[in-house]
Amino acid sequence: MSQDSTAVPEAARKLSGRRRREIVAVLLFSGGPIFESSIPLSVFGIDRQDAGVPRYRLLVCAGEDGPLRTTGGLELTAPYGLEAMSRAGTVVVPAWRSITSPPPPEALDALRRAHEEGARIVGLCTGAFVLAAAGLLDGRPATTHWMYAPTLAKRYPSVHVDPRELFVDDGDVLTSAGTAAGIDLCLHIVRTDHGTEAAGALARRLVVPPRRSGGQERYLDRSLPEEIGADPLAEVVAWALEHLHEQFDVETLAARAYMSRRTFDRRFRSLTGSAPLQWLITQRVLQAQRLLETSDYSVDEVAGRCGFRSPVALRGHFRRQLGSSPAAYRAAYRARRPQGEVPPAPSTVTQTMDALPQQARRAAAASTPAGPSATASAAPDPGKPGSDAYAPGRPTLPGQRERPVG
Fold first, then answer.
1. What count of other Cβ atoms lies within 10 Å of the Cβ of residue 378?
2. What pLDDT, in 10s, does the model give residues 82-108?
3. By three-state DSSP, how is residue 308 classified?
4. pLDDT digit string (tens) for 186-221?
5. Do 163 and 207 contact (CB within 8 A), yes or no?
6. I want to staple 124 with a disulfide (CB 3.0 to 4.6 A). Which of 24, 80, 154, 182 is the partner?
């Protein structure tokens, strides 16, 4: 992992009191989605010793007074309360009911106490918001569903949010992206505790891959948080999306915002949860993906229409984000499409503007070219040293970011 911000000594993470490593507490709240809540219950709560999976002891704890209502109006009654968390070596918080509402203070206190006593704390999907509210993600790398990553970054600026990862393992605090990534993280925990064989046996039982390649990049779309509509950067973001077919760099965007590069980077990251170059390259790759799906342009033409300096730059970033070459992606997409189906013609400007909040669309419509001329590519050639926006600190295993050993 590229960011080892905690560097907690091994001795400080030893369990204290009655806590046991084989005990997993799952903290449930009213309003939580049932699928995400069921993931840790299925992974840690079912005896699969006959398949070679070591057994955990599961404690399902209510994070607030019940009954707990979940998806579809179902009512759940948890057999334990917050006091049972005092025995757990691992505490899992599935998706939180609302990213805009604060978690109960009693639950946050219990999470802080568990962490202080050496328990491993896990947040699945928007469960990261609960961990952040408890202060457990301060100064740490973390992830959540890509759609909520900008809000997490803006609300908790001390958290190093990475919306690209399927999960982040920072030693004693772990977070995952949305829904299925919760399975990835739970399998990773089993692998960490009991080895590859046990995790593989569990994956076979669940009929899922033991490891998924890639990150969240392939699932990203153009959507940005609604808060951007009232932000001064809205016009710059709208302009960038409308002009992806042109070659421009982050300095161009900073000049349009009348900011220094450093100030622009900081403001952009606080607003969107990602660095501006990372965001810009992702948007170019997404546009290339759409053109490959909906047009007959050659790969060279697609590269030019998405603002890449060369097809080599497109191929490098496309493979890094989506795990395949542009040509292979197009072939696989067309093989999946029903025979005879005609793809809709792409409309870059319409797709771009429809994805923005209303105020940002108005700002883009009224904007006129400003700042220096766009001469540099926002997607440097991956063959040049130091030009790869994604290479530094990328994890050894795709789809995850883990804390190094030692």
1. 28
2. 999 999 999 999 989 888 889 999 999
3. coil
4. 999 999 999 999 999 998 988 887 777 655 655 555
5. no
6. 182
Tell me how far apart the 2 most distant CA atoms of the chain are, in Å.
67
- Domains and their CATH numbers in the chain: 10-212 (3.40.50.880), 226-366 (1.10.10.60)
Cβ-defined contacts of 300-303 (< 8 Å, 24+) = 302/326
Question: Which tokens sit at 89?
Answer: 């070596």
Report the distance separating Cα 164 and Cα 220, nearest Å.
9
Model pLDDT, residue 104: 95
**Residue recorded with tokens 């050639």:** 381
User: Any idea which residue has 């599935």 for tokens?
Assistant: 94
Alpha-carbon distance of 64 to 139, in angstroms, equals: 28
Distance between CA atoms of 41 and 35, rounded to whole angstroms? 10
CA pair distance 303, 309, nearest whole angstrom? 7
Per-residue HEC secondary structure of 29-43 comes to CCCCCHHHHHHHHHH
Cis preceding-peptide flag for 311 (omega within 30 of 0): no
Name the most confidently modeled range: 52-66, 270-284, 314-328: 52-66
pLDDT at 51: 83
- State pLDDT tens for residues 284-305: 988 898 899 889 999 999 999 9
CB atoms < 10 A from the CB of 349, how many? 13
379 in Cβ contact with 268 (< 8 Å): no
Report the amino acid identity of residue 254: A
